[in-house]
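Thread: Modeling a multi-component assembly for a lab meeting

Hi all, long-time lurker, first post. My supervisor asked me to bring a structural picture of a complex we are working on to next week's group meeting, and I have zero experience with this. I have the sequence lines for every component (997 residues in total). Could someone generate the structure of the whole assembly? Inputs are pasted exactly as I received them:
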Amino acid sequence: MKRILCTLALCTVPFLSACKKSGESAGGEEKLTIALLPKSKGNQYFVTCEKGARVAAAELGAELLFDGPTNSDPAKQNEIVENWISLGVDVIAAAAENKDGLSTALRKARAEGIEVITYDADAQTDARSFFVNQATAKGIGDALMDNAASLTGAEGEFAILTANLTAANQNEWIEVIKARQAEKYPNMKLVDIKPCDDQKDKAQQETTNLLSAYPNLKAVVAVCSPAVPGAAEAVKQAGKTGAVKVIGLGLPSENKAYVKEGVTQAVILWKVEDLGYLTIKAAAALAKGELKAGAAEFDAGKLGKLAVEGDNILLGTPFTFNKENIDQFDF
Amino acid sequence: MSTCCRYGVDETSTLLNAVMTAAKPSLKSLLARHEVVLLIVIALEILLFQSLGRRFLDGTNVSNIFRHSVEIGLLALAMTPVILTGGIDLSVGSMMGLCAVCFGIFVNEAAMSPLLAALLAVGIGTLGGGLNALLIARFQLPPLIVTLGTFSLFRGLAEALTKGSKSYSGFPDSFLALGNSDIAGVPAQIWIFLLVALGIWLLVHRMTIGRSFRAIGYSPEGARYAGIPVRRNLGLAYILAGAIAGLAAVILVARLGEARANAGIGYELLAITAVVLGGTSIFGGSGSVGGTLLGYLAVAVLNNGLSRITAYQLFDQPISSVARELSGMLTGLLLLLALAVTPLAKALAARRTKT
Amino acid sequence: MNGRYSREITVAAALGLLLVALAVFAPNFFELQPLLSRFTSQMPALVAAIGITLVIITRQIDISLGAQFSMCAVVAGLVAAAGMPLGVAILAAVGTGIAMGAFNGILVAWLGLPSIVVTLATMVTWNEMLRLWQQGRLLPLPDGIQWFGLSQAGGQGLVIGIAVVLLLAAAWAMRHLAAGRHVYATGTDAEAARLAGIDPKRVTLGVFVLMGGLAGLAAVLNLVQSPQVQPNSGDGLELKVIAAAVVGGVAINGGRGNLWGVLLGLLLLTNVNPALTHFKMEPYWERAIQGLVILLAVVADGMKRSKKSTA
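Re: Modeling a multi-component assembly
Sure thing. I ran the full set together rather than chain by chain. Output:
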C-alpha cells in the first residue's frame, strides 16, 4: 500500500516540476481574460489564428485562454465554453463547429454577463453580440465558383471535396457554390461531393477515384485546407496537371509547391493571422464597452479602421493566392 | 484469469471493513485495494487542482464536472455488466449517434412530443442492443467483432439518415431543461444518472442475475453447468447497454440542443477506460459498479481540472490550453499504471521472497 | 481439406462480384493509372494488416497501430526534413515503431496485462503526445523523398513490390518456419505451447515488436506517396486493418487465419468506397456497408461452426 502511495506521489512530481508559473499580473489592475475557441485544435488554420490572437493579447495586456476540441465530438465545444463560464472569463470568442449546439452554451455565457463574439463560423445571432466575418459565406462561395468557372471556360463537370459531411461552415459554402453555378454558369455541372475527414491522404484517394469515375472532370474545388494538397497530388499523379484545375481554400504555405508547378491554379484565403488579431481586438473592445451595437466602423490597431456591417465586423475580401504572388506569404 | 483470492488480508482491508459491505469476503481485499487506490487518486487530483487551478471547487464547476461527463458515466455503467461477462461493446458510442438522429427526426419531422421521441429513441437503442445480443448470445459470435461491425453499422445508418450533413435543433425549452437546469441544486440529468447507477448496482450486486454475469465471465461453461441461463443473461447485458446508450443520447441532445450523426463519437473508449480503471477485469469475472463509478470520477475530474489551471505553463502554453491533450495522455498513463501496479507489486514480492 | 479455404473463397467471390459489377457499369475503374495509384495507396494498410494478423493469431489485439503509424510518419518526416538521407529516415521510422511495439509487448507479455486495454492506453497516449508536439501542421518533405527519389511509376512499383515481398515472406514464414508455428501454437493454447517447449511470452513480445516495426514501415510506404506528411495520417487505420483481418477469416480467439484471406478482406473493404464513387452513389452509405460486411463475415463464421457442431 505504501508503495502504491509512493508511486502515485512520485508520478505527480515530474508533472509539477515541468510546470512553471507564468508571469503574475503586476498587482492592482485586473487583467482582462479573453477565451478563444477554435473549431478544432491540431489544425494549422487555427494555430495560425492563435498566433495573431497572441499578438493582440500581448498588445492589450490581456490574458488569453485557448482551447478547443481534439476530435469531432459535437459536445466538446459546449463543455469548453461552460468551463470558461465558471472560470469567470470576461469575454468568449468562438468559432462554431455546430451552430445550434454551441449557441446553447453561448447563450448561457451571455446570461452570466460574459460578452460573446464569434469569428470564422457564426453561431445563432441571438447567442453573440458581433461576428468577426473573415469573408461572408457568399463571398467565399462566389469566389470559388467564379474562379472555377474562369479556369474552365465556364463549362464542364466539377467536383467538391469537403471536410466531413457534418461540417456546418463547409455546407454553407457548398450551398452558395451550387446557387452561384445555377444562376451564372448553366453549362457547368457539380457531379459529386466527397468528404475527406480532414485527412490529406484520404483527399488524395478520393480525388483519384473522382478522376477515373468522371473522365470529363474539369475542376476539383476543395473547401477544407488538407484537401487542397491532397487533391493536387492526385491530379499530378494522374498526369492531368493543367487539364483538371485544382482550386480551394487553404494556407499558401501548404500549397506553394503545387501552385508553382501549375497543378493548383489558385488558393483562396484571408489573412488568417489577422483574423485572430482582429477577433481579440474586437473581443477586448466589446468587454471594455468601447464596441457597441450600431457602430459603423472599428479601429483594429495595426489593421486600421474596418467596416462594421450590422453586427458583422468585416476583415476584408478574401485573397487569391496564385503563381505570381504566393511567394510573398509565409503562413 | 482468477485474479481474486490470491491476496492475503492487508492493512487496508481492515480499515475498509466498515465501508465495504457489498463485497464478498474473498473479493474484499482486492476490491478494497483497488478502490482505495482510486479514492487516493481522486483525492490527489482534487488537492492538486484546488491548489493550482482557478475556481475548481466552485459550485458551478462541480456541477459542470458531472454535467459534462454524465453521458460517458452512463455508458460506463452500461458497459460494466457487459465486461463482467467477459464481453465488450464497442458500439455504444455509435448507438448514441443513431439514437440522437432518430430522436431529432421524431421531434422535428414527425412532430412528436419530446417525451414520446425519447422513449422511442431508448427503444431504438434497445433494438440495437438486441441485435448485438442476438449475434453474441444466440449465435455465440465474438463480442469484439460483432460490436466492431455494429460500431460501423450504427454510425453509418446515422450518417445515411441525415445524409451526413443534416442536424436537428429547435427543441422546446422544457426538453432542454433536462440537460441544462438544476433540480434541488443538482444538474437534472444527474438524478437520472443516480437512478441508473442504483439500478445497475442492484442488478449486479444484489440480484442473482448479477452474480451470473460474473459467473459467465469467469467460465461460461461452468455457468451453464450451474444451471444459469447463460444465453438469456448474456443477451440481457447487451440489450441493457443499448437502452442506456439511447438514454445517454437523449440527455446529450437535451444538453446541446442539437442532434447530429456524430453524437457520442469515441465515447465507447472513454467508457471502457472508466470501467477498467475501476478495477473490472477486461477478461470478465470480477469487478464492481462502485469501482466503475470511481474510475469514471477519476477521469472526469482530471479532464475538468486540467482545464482550470491557467496560471501555470507547460511548453510555453498555459496548461488550460493544452488540457485536452494532457488529460488524454494522463488518462492513458493512469490506466497503464492502474493495471500494472498489481502485477508489478506481485513480481517484486516474489523476487523478495526468493532472495 | 473440405471447407478449409471456404472463407477465402467466399471473400474472393464477393470481391470478384464487386469487380465484375465495376467492369460492367464503370469500366473506367480499371484504367491503368488510377488503378495503380489506388492499389499503391492501399499498400501501407496491407503492411499493417500483416502485423495485426500475427497479433490476432497470437490471441492478442493492438489498437494502437494507427497511433504508431502516425508517430513513425512524423519521426521519419522530421528526420528527412533535417536533411538526413532517406535510409536514415526509414530506420528511424522502423526503430520508433519497434520501440513502441516493444513497450506494448513488455506490458502484455511480461506483466500479463490485457492487450486491448494496454493498446487502448498507448493509442490515446501517443495520439495526444503527437497533437501536443505537432499541432497538426503539415510537414513538408525535401525533394528526393517522394517515390524514393525515383520516377512515379518506379516509386509505385517499389512500394507495391516491398509490400508484396513482405506479404509473401510473412506467409511463407508462418507456414514453414518454426517461429510461424509458434505463433499459431501460442494463440491456440498458450499453456500447451509452453509444455511443448515454446516460450509464449517471447512469442507475444515478438509479435508486438513486429507489429510496431511493420507500422513504421507502413508509415514509410505512405510517406513516399506525397511530398507532405500530416501528423494524424494513421487515424482510423486500426479499425480498417482489424476489420480486414476479421473479414479475411482470422479468428479473434486466436490460432486460426492466414494472410491470403486478410489480403482479400482488405481489398474488399478498401474498394467499397471507390466502387461507390464509380457507381455514382452517395457516399453516406460507406460506413454502414462496411459494418454490414463485417457482420456478414462473422455470421457466416458462426453458421459454419454451428453446422459443424450439429453434424
